[in-house]
Design brief:
Number of strands: 10
Structural class: mainly beta
Order of helices and strands: EEEEEEEEEE
Strand order of the largest sheet: 4-5-6-7
Distance between the termini: 23 Å
Largest sheet: 4 strands, antiparallel
Strand content: over 45%
Shape: globular
Radius of gyration: 13 Å
Oligomer: single chain
Number of domains: 1
Helix content: under 10%
């Protein structure tokens, strides 16, 4: 699991590798080439962040069957979903106006 770009500084497309075969994926709600996977668990659920056409960041979970579930931390302008454990619990953060990042 990872991401690749198409030569631009602002492109990110997710991929999953299994047994030497690569599968690219993008969140359907994302702007083109704006899907950034960060975590994967044993059942192959993937957590990450996508950016929409207005450049707002949102969290996502991609199921092994390629269905996406998108979410935002309540009240946040940007949501980063970093890791997912085998129970489906996600750790991430949201940058705020004050220094630092609020974690969830």
């Amino acid at each position: 699991m990872g991401q690749y770009d198409l030569g631009g500084q602002t492109t990110a497309i997710g991929f999953l590798e299994a047994h030497g075969e690569f599968t690219s994926f993008e969140d359907p709600a994302a702007a083109p080439a704006q899907t950034q996977p960060y975590g994967i668990n044993s059942p192959n659920f993937i957590s990450g962040t996508y950016f929409d056409m207005a450049s707002n960041g949102h969290g996502f979970v991609r199921e092994p069957g390629a269905q996406f579930h998108n979410f935002d931390f309540p009240g946040a302008d940007v949501t980063f979903a970093r890791q997912i454990n085998d129970l489906g619990q996600i750790v991430g953060g949201t940058p705020q106006i004050s220094p630092g990042t609020d974690l969830f």
